[in-house]
Design brief:
Layout: H1 13-35, H2 43-59, E1 83-85, E2 94-96, H3 99-113, E3 123-129, E4 132-139, E5 142-148, E6 154-156, H4 159-163, H5 172-175, E7 188-196, H6 199-211, H7 220-228, H8 233-238, E8 242-252, H9 259-268, E9 278-280, H10 283-296, E10 304-311, H11 314-320, E11 322-323, E12 326-327, E13 330-334, E14 338-351, E15 356-368, E16 371-377, H12 381-387, E17 394-399, E18 406-410, E19 435-436, E20 444-446, H13 455-463, H14 475-483, H15 498-501, H16 509-521, H17 527-533, H18 541-551, H19 554-559, H20 562-566, H21 573-584, H22 586-597, E21 617-621, H23 629-638, E22 642-644, E23 653-656, H24 662-670, E24 673-676, H25 677-686
Parallel strand pairs: 2-13, 21-22, 21-23, 23-24
Antiparallel strand pairs: 1-6, 3-9, 3-10, 4-5, 4-7, 7-8, 10-13, 11-12, 14-15, 14-17, 15-16, 15-20, 17-18, 19-20
The structure holds zinc ion.
Length: 692
């Protein structure tokens, strides 16, 4: 390109250089914020740059490159990860569990190198992170590929996911330290490190999952691995992962003499390198450093499970080589798990924010690695039985990283007499409603709609967009309602008065009025929304719609038996049981009574069983002119047919709009009947269903 511009074609030079300049500034800001923790520009300035770049890229889509900071938000979901072959295998390290084994490692190295025992070897000590090992490949300084370690030889290509992690530079020329002694960015380099989650973010993700009724992660490591291996990289982008880099794989055009030089170069190129690195003159210094961190590690904002010790000289590393997939020149020292023995005083059952009942062991206080512990989780009923934990038992408990202490095992020899076995209560210890444990699930839950333990989560769900859609009543306001005792269940929203809201903190008259209005408007919500809003376990939007269309009113759903519920399309025995149990609760009856009193008792036209459509599977493809996709699916449902998104030999009908692509081709090849949007609308009319 003779213009000197990065971009081909129709992008004016001044725009091209503005884009380049903004990218440089944003990448630099990310580096300072996420790697150095020393932000230089304000959030507002950062947002302004980001918006400007977004605008420019929208206007000139051909200017979008993989190293643009706009590419950190995640890409369209994948169905699977492609395998990724590591150019240089990512070996695993042998382990050492005490100081003697570290000394033995030192002696082995010397023996192999033919050195006498008195000559010291220089080592580099680094923290051993508890996360997911990944590799990043840069060509010309641009991130081109990222992969998991896998079995060391082949991992998974997760480039899109790693790109969303802001501590990972996308363009090394933008993050490189500008200093004469910083090594130049090599033409090719593969950088290795560990993707981790810090404790705060781990807690935030678990809280969010609890509210959404999703299983929580057991520890930050699992959460990091689960986040980085998401097929939908947009989810990865929402998790605040970070990555510490600690080594290189294949590289070209750069020379190193020691491992420490590599670490310094990584820092110079803009990677996040952990500051707690020690160059130890001999193995005794290594042991001292390891002892120092045994307690110091408790104060880190992330988990480590040990220390990695590497021979510093790359020349010696080469001479030592590797044996059976592990290098001879490195070892991982693992800190022992922190265990202690104590006695169980009580097994208490706690109710979480989603109604999950968790048995918790209340114990004689005991010190575990400097922390006094008096409670430990027993996870769930099955775990208690598997470990056979009973009150008065002597137990071994363990603390590991951020995880809540847990009971490892019972010291059976110390059991006195025959204490009673643990049983999960069948009523909620907080609200007294029934406890349900669905078939195949480990967790027992309280089904009470007015359970104080769950009120916050239930209210957030009730008011959410796909439920009653009460805009203007967000989690912060709901918290105030709850904390001030204004609401105890969802129906209480409808008896709130403006005089009750105005005195609340940060409440102007205008926003109080908006809240009241939004609550008022939500009274018009249809039956499917109301059923969904009640937050019945296993009842999502689709099931709520099936129930609404089958029964036509809340009263009819409430009066249906478990067997009748199970007859509804798409509803299996587990869901039927859950629905029946929910409506069986006194609290539910009371809430429904209050809702009805407030004027909320929607009815829905029951689903028709039309001859033309009943039981058929219909797929829409291409652009519709008169119908939105949502409306079309709703019509299909009303007619007794089932909308589907993929064409197979079980498809009965394909409605093809403008620019229909592969689905239409597939339908034709399978001999599935294809009709136009107008033909579909005509059929709907024939079936006697109104299109509004
Ligand atoms: Zn309860």
């Amino acid at each position: 390109m003779s213009t000197g511009s990065l971009f081909e074609g129709g992008i004016p030079n001044e725009i091209a250089s503005e884009i380049e300049d903004i990218r440089k500034r944003i990448n630099r800001a990310n580096f300072l914020y996420y790697v150095k923790d020393q932000p230089e520009i304000s959030d507002a300035e950062y947002d302004r740059l980001m918006r400007r770049l977004q605008d420019l890229e929208n206007e000139y889509p051909e200017a979008v490159t993989p190293d643009s900071p706009t590419q950190r938000v995640g890409a369209i979901p994948q169905t699977e990860f492609a395998p990724y072959q590591h150019a240089v295998p990512m070996l695993s390290l042998a382990n050492a569990f005490d100081a003697d084994e570290l000394q033995a490692f030192d002696e082995r190295c010397k023996r192999f190198l033919g050195m006498d025992r008195e000559t010291p070897i220089e080592y580099v000590c680094e923290l051993k992170f508890d996360g997911l090992a990944c590799s990043l490949t840069y060509r010309g300084g641009i991130l081109v590929a990222g992969a998991t370690r896998g079995d060391g030889f082949q991992g998974e290509n997760i480039t899109e996911n790693l790109r969303t992690i802001k501590a990972i530079p996308l363009n090394l020329h933008h993050s490189r330290r500008e200093s004469p002694d910083a090594k130049a960015v090599p033409p090719v380099v593969e950088v290795r490190g560990e993707v981790i989650l810090e404790h705060d973010e781990f807690r935030r993700i678990n809280e969010e999952r609890e509210i959404n009724g999703e299983p929580t992660f057991a520890n930050p490591r699992n959460a990091a691995a689960g986040s980085v291996r998401q097929l939908d990289s947009r989810i990865t982008a929402r998790r605040n992962l970070t990555m510490f880099c600690y080594g290189v794989g294949a590289y070209d055009g750069v020379d190193f003499d020691t491992h420490y030089e590599i670490l310094c170069a990584l820092g110079d190129w803009g990677f996040k390198v952990n500051p707690n690195i020690k160059v130890a003159g001999n193995i005794d210094e290594v042991v001292a450093y390891m002892n120092e961190w045994e307690t110091k590690k408790e104060s880190l904002p992330y988990d480590i499970d040990g220390m990695v010790v590497k021979v510093n000289s790359l020349d010696l590393q080469t001479r030592l080589g590797s044996v059976s997939r592990s290098p001879r020149w490195a070892i991982a020292y693992k800190y022992p798990a922190h265990q202690a023995t104590t006695v169980i005083k009580e097994i208490r059952v706690q109710v979480g924010r989603t109604g999950a009942l968790t048995p918790v062991a209340i114990m004689e206080p005991v010190e575990v690695s400097g922390v006094t512990v008096s409670r430990a989780t027993l996870h769930n009923e099955d775990e208690v039985h598997r470990k056979d934990v009973r009150v008065s038992d002597t137990v071994v408990i363990q603390r590991a990283g951020e995880v809540i202490p847990e009971v490892v095992e019972v010291v059976k020899e110390k059991r006195v007499g025959d204490p009673e076995e643990f049983t999960m209560p069948d009523k909620c210890p907080v609200c007294g409603a029934d406890v349900e444990r669905a078939e195949g699930e480990a967790v027992a839950r309280c089904v009470g709609i007015a359970c104080p333990a769950q009120i916050r989560g239930r209210m957030i769900h009730f008011t959410s967009r796909n439920a009653m859609d009460i805009d203007g009543v967000g989690p912060a306001l709901l918290d105030q309602f709850i904390d001030n005792g204004l609401i105890h269940d969802p129906a209480d929203l409808y008896s709130l008065t403006i005089d009750q809201i105005i005195p609340l903190e940060r409440m102007a008259k205008k926003s109080a009025e908006n809240a009241i209005n939004a609550i008022e408007v939500s009274k018009n919500a249809n039956l499917s929304r109301l059923i969904y809003a009640l937050g019945i376990r296993h009842v999502g939007e689709r099931t709520a719609a099936s129930l609404a269309q089958h029964f036509g009113s809340i009263e009819a759903v409430r009066n249906a038996s478990e067997e009748e519920l199970a007859e509804v399309q798409d509803i299996g025995p587990v869901v039927a049981r859950s629905v029946a149990k929910f409506f069986d609760q006194e609290e539910t009856t009371e809430v429904l009574r209050k809702l009805k009193e407030a004027g909320i008792d929607p009815t829905e036209e029951a689903r028709r069983e039309t001859e033309e459509f009943a039981g058929k599977t219909i797929v829409f493809t291409g652009a519709m002119e008169k119908l939105t996709r949502e409306k079309a699916q709703e019509l299909v449902f009303k007619l007794g047919a089932n909308p589907s998104s993929s064409v197979s030999k079980n498809t009965d009908l394909v409605v093809a709009g403008d620019k229909a692509g592969s689905k239409l081709e597939k339908a034709i090849s399978l001999g599935v009947k294809v009709i136009s949007e107008d033909e579909f609308l005509e059929m709907v009319k024939q079936a006697g269903v109104e299109i509004d």
